[in-house]
Amino acid sequence: MYLAISQGESVHDDRERCYPERYFDIEDGNLKDNDEVLALGFGRIKWVGKYMGSSAMHLVIASILPTFESKKAAGDAIETDDKYTELHQVHAEEIVIHGRMC
């Protein structure tokens, strides 16, 4: 049942094709604001803590990311073009992320 709902033709044009770009907005390149995550339920049985859970995951990821160092694969400094995402963070392309060794 969940598979049929998540792959309906009203949701995706070509549901059999692997096409990750369908989740991006064509005009600005940002992720689409898709609140229909089936793991959180749908319709009348939608999880009431959906927004709290989403905020908690954002905080967890934001807490973990600073523990990593990000740099180019060749070890060069990262040049940014000061392109901002929806979260107002500088977006640097093609980086390699390694955990810090303490």
Q: Which helices and strands, and how do they pair?
A:
Layout: H1 2-6, H2 50-64, E1 68-71, E2 96-99
Antiparallel strand pairs: 1-2
Query: Would you tell me the overall average pLDDT?
Result: 69
Q: How far apart, in Å, are the first and last alpha carbons?
A: 47 Å
Overall structural class, as computed from helix and strand content, comes to: alpha+beta
What value does the Rg take, in angstroms?
Answer: 18 Å
> How many helices does DSSP assign?
2
Number of domains: 1
Q: Summarize the amount of helix as a percent range.
A: 10-25%
N-to-C SSE string, H for helix and E for strand: HHEE
Largest sheet: 2 strands, antiparallel
Q: Widest sheet: strand order?
A: 1-2
The count of β-strands is: 2
Strand portion? 5-15%
Unreliable segments of 5+ consecutive residues: none
Folded structure, characterized:
Helix content is 20%, strand content 8%. With 102 residues, the protein is an alpha+beta fold. A two-stranded antiparallel ribbon has the order 1-2.
Notable characteristics:
102 residues; alpha+beta; oxidoreductase activity, acting on paired donors, with incorporation or reduction of molecular oxygen; monooxygenase activity
